[in-house]
Amino acid sequence: MENHTRDSSRTATRGQHETSVRALNEPARKPILASPSSSSSSLSGLSSPASSALSTPASVNEDCYDLICVGFGPSAIAIAIAIEETVKHAGALRILFIERQTSFAWHGGLLLPSSRMQISFVKDFATLRDPTSKFTFLNYLHCNQRLIDFVNQSTFYPLCEEYNDYMNWCAQQFNHQVVYGEEVFDLYPAEDESGNSKIIDSASPYDGHDIYKKFAVTTRLANDHGEIKQFIRFAKNVVVCAGGRMKFPECFPNSLLIPRIRKVDSTKHEPNYLRVIHSAQFMYSLSQIETIVTGQKSARIAVIGGGQSAAEITGYLHSNYANATIDMIFSSYALKPSDDSPFVNELFNPQAVDEIFAKSQVERNQFIKNHATTNYGVVRIELLEDLFRRMYEEKLPGRNIRLWMRNNRTVSQFEDKGDVILLTLQNNSVASPSNGLEKLEYDFVVAATGYDNSINRDQLLTNLSKFMPTGSPEVERNYQVKTDDRLACKLFTQGSNQSTHGLSDTLLSILAIRGQEIAGSIFGQSL
Fold first, then answer.
1. Which of the chain's termini has less CB crowding within 10 Å, N or C?
2. Burial class (CB in 10 A: 0-12, 13-18, 19+), 67
3. Using an 8 Å Cβ cutoff, are 188 and 215 in contact?
4. What pLDDT is attached to residue 42?
């Protein structure tokens, strides 16, 4: 089994204030009077800029980058490392990574104390490609004077907190190529074969005979005064590492997908569902939970989901809030253990991608369905045993039962009652009373219900759909999006290709090899 819960394609969502940290080699921008339409969909679940925000004229960087990468999470870092270590004349290339967060953080909302990686540290950014690389996890330990102490632990699975620090250590070595705090919200073809800087958006007709040699990458930045600044940069190649968007049960309100700064006032009801979060926001929401839960004699918390993140959060809440009863709600009959056997882990070998891609789409779909439990909805056996032990001990005389497994249940209705959240659960067991419907009130709800890994990519590529044979993104084995001959520039996607490249696509397992594949596909020559 590999890392089931933490997306490799980019960093996690954070709802904090955003400021810009300019890349060291980012040239000054010149203002222009016109920019592409801002009406198209936004990236990573963000809404369009509020109508009350002040907009400034877009600024343009006329110089063309060799590569712009949307996002600077693990996938992008692996590409940056591979370019530096395998591409000839890498230092002469103009490369830029644009990250919406204000600093690097890999699933910061899920970095629970003592949580460990579910993947060997050997599958880091470099070792499987080149064990002598300076970007290996072992070299990180050596540089931070912890190598011997780590070895003495006799483990292949470091703390998630430590692995996040390793990733950040690698990321910092590319600060001169990264812009933090900007959101990429549109991508357009630009410049025809005559050299005209001609941007084609969804509202603009195009000349079917033109050949477009570069992309226009449009971003926006909001400052603390509500002013929205927009920027346009050009690139010969673009890699989209847009990451997944949080998923909630279908009956939950859509407004939960809009990032916001949460302020808790225990004396009144706020209309933006402060009592509901996604698991990706958990560690960022502890003060919120503290205010709501500890402010009453007894509290009830629901954790929806049956995977590793749901189990870790359930254990954390049970350990840290003695006045709270925790309901873990999941659709299966029992929590399922993850499989760590070497045969199962072969599914995540680099060569497995070739085998899966060679299949027909029908065969791929069946393959992924057959092996989905190696990647989704499973829990490390040690954590399962810990949760069961807790439940057993609470059955002893004089104990209060505070941990409940609401198995065989799905959430069918959501209602915000102001001081509580009312969930209607569909009990799918045969002998359930009242047609299987249960109505339960909760003071706080955590949805550990996964991510949609394609929606951000699809929205960002809307203006390029007219150049795609089927009108929607399809990728080659090398992760390049299929386009017709009018688009001479190259477009790649990462972390959204599970249906064609297999279960390792959103994981960390093959980043070192995949980074080299992308670098070679773009720049060709290798050292």
1. C
2. buried
3. yes
4. 32
DSSP 26: P
pTM value is 0.86
The dihedrals phi and psi of 222, each to the nearest 5 degrees, come to: -105, 130
Distance between CA atoms of 267 and 269, rounded to whole angstroms?
Answer: 7
Distance CA 465, CA 480 (A): 14
* pLDDT score, position 63: 81
Lowest mean per-residue pLDDT among 72-86, 249-263, 385-399: 249-263
Angle ∠(373,258,245) on CA atoms, nearest 5: 25
**Residues 221 and 23 sit within 8 Å (Cβ to Cβ):** no
d(CA 59, CA 65): 16
Task: Please choose, from the candidates 456, 500, 31, the residue with its C-alpha nearest in 3D space to the C-alpha of residue 246.
Answer: 456
> Which numeric CATH code is attached to 248-337+380-447?
3.50.50.60
147 three-class SS? helix
pLDDT digits (tens, 9 = 90+) for 375-397: 789 999 999 999 999 999 999 99
pLDDT of amino acid 225: 77
Two tokens at 315?
A: 């254990």
pLDDT (0 to 100) of residue 17: 30
pLDDT bucket at 36, cuts 50 / 70 / 90: very low
Angstrom distance (rounded) from CA 428 to CA 406: 11
CATH of 30-214+225-245+452-523, one of 3.30.300.70, 3.30.365.10, 3.10.620.30, 3.50.50.60: 3.50.50.60
> Using CA of residue 253, residue 256, residue 261, residue 266, what is the dihedral sign?
positive
- 7, 504 contact by CB (below 8 A): no
| Closest alpha carbon to 119 in 386, 510, 449, 452 | 510
Residue 52 predicted with pLDDT over 80: no
Q: How far is CA 336 from CA 5, 116, 190, 308, 407, in A?
A: 15, 18, 50, 10, 12
Give the range among 37-41, 59-63, 357-361, 499-503 with minimum mean pLDDT.
37-41
pLDDT score of 260: 44
Q: Which residues pair with 426 in a beta bridge?
A: 410, 437
Angle between helix axes 511-523 and 74-86 (nearest 10 degrees) is: 60
- The number of C-alpha atoms within 13 Å of 431 and in the hemisphere containing its C-beta is 0
Domain limits of the chain? Answer: 30-214+225-245+452-523, 248-337+380-447
Phi-psi region of 354 (alpha: psi -120 to 50; beta: other; left: phi over 0): alpha
Q: Is the dihedral of CA 130, 136, 137, 141 positive or negative?
A: positive
3-state secondary structure of 77: helix
Average pLDDT of the residues in 253-271: 53
Binned at pLDDT 50, 70 and 90, residue 431 comes out as low
- Residue 99: the pLDDT is 96
pLDDT score for 258? 63
Distance separating alpha carbons of residues 20 and 255, to the nearest angstrom: 26
